[in-house]
């Protein structure tokens, strides 16, 4: 895992493989000329105040995420200077936004793969900047290399690591090993706390990325449950795993129905983090379809290849609960991982079947590829029995949400407008793309069934909202609830950008952690 350290040393005297500085598009004069960002004064001075001009000669523009490398000046102990674009220069007396710092640090860390140490001389004025640069660098340094190269074992790689960055790439460059933040004070309590928080949250988020990237032949429901059990033991979290026999005895028709076609039996995992000082209790519920073929309603060619990521919601919940424990938050957080594999076989649930859910409601299954809402419904109903102050479920639930919001934004639905706003504001604060979505009552009628209490499909248009309305049916009376549909940003199929890698992203982890922090401080609304 990439290490994070703080230092008040100046850039010329730091022993490192590279010094990272920020540059931006100038706005003060309106000329748009390149400007060197605060934090890089010593580096600029070593270039006789001409660093911006040298970079412009090399083609640098300050565009967000742009990386330009050049030899370090004479007298520097580091051989390389890496300039990363921050975008537009902030207005007078303003600071760079936290997300701009995160993305810049992430882009620089990715560009320095293979290096042992890099010193980041980006703008740091307070603990918030320490957190942003630290998070960006640690997330940008992520690499998943477990399956690359010739390990000599052959076949499946059972037992592959799910503990964050691979220590050494087997094919290609290893991740940046150490990040030092210049201008951050190791003896400053706020700076130190920000760095410790950044480390805990990013390590768990990167563990979620590892789980998402692990192929489904190595990560079935039982294997995922085993990972959760190991982490719970390590961090003092109480864990309960319901296997297929317990699920059948408990009447979890949704989870069992989805997993019926697979040779890998489903699981429901309960992770309970408790604090003696807690005044609030949150329940996080994650969709954990370790592979989604669509079942009998088989997905068409071209839509199956990335379906290992359909457990991203469960990975996010798992990571958030462990992060809450590591941070010692004064709030009780219960995580529910609804794990199943959706496969077609002679024993699979068929379109037209009726499932009796844990809540007692019956559901007519019109499409077996609308399976996530079935496992979530059982978990929501079960979680409601604990009477938490709020429930948040997270799921790669609908393609409709991707059509509505694209690949970088998740939708937020809720049965309480104020709570929906609070979750949205938390997402914005931590830099995750999100957008509040409605739950129109008129769409509920489309799920009326002549056979059962409700069908798992409704109107074609507004499908993401229909799925939210379905889940709402299973929330306990009087319980505040929100639904995060992360289908778009959970898995990045395009090129890496900022601190976001190709593959699993860990979407929603930071939002959930922030919500837990707000609940702990009494500021959740």
Automatic annotation (TrEMBL):
GO terms for molecular function: aminopeptidase activity. It comes from the Bacteria. It is an enzyme of class 3 (hydrolase). Mn(2+) 2 binds at residues 287, 292, 310, 371. CDD domains: Peptidase_M17. Residues 367-374 form the Cytosol aminopeptidase domain. Its EC number is 3.4.11.1, 3.4.11.10. Belongs to the peptidase M17 family. Mn(2+) 1 binds at residues 292, 369, 371. Residues 158-171 have a biased composition (Low complexity). Its main location: cytoplasm. The gene is pepA. Presumably involved in the processing and regular turnover of intracellular proteins. Catalyzes the removal of unsubstituted N-terminal amino acids from various peptides. Binds 2 manganese ions per subunit. This is Probable cytosol aminopeptidase. It comes from Streptomyces bluensis. Signal peptide: none annotated. Pfam families: Peptidase_M17, Peptidase_M17_N. The keyword Manganese applies.
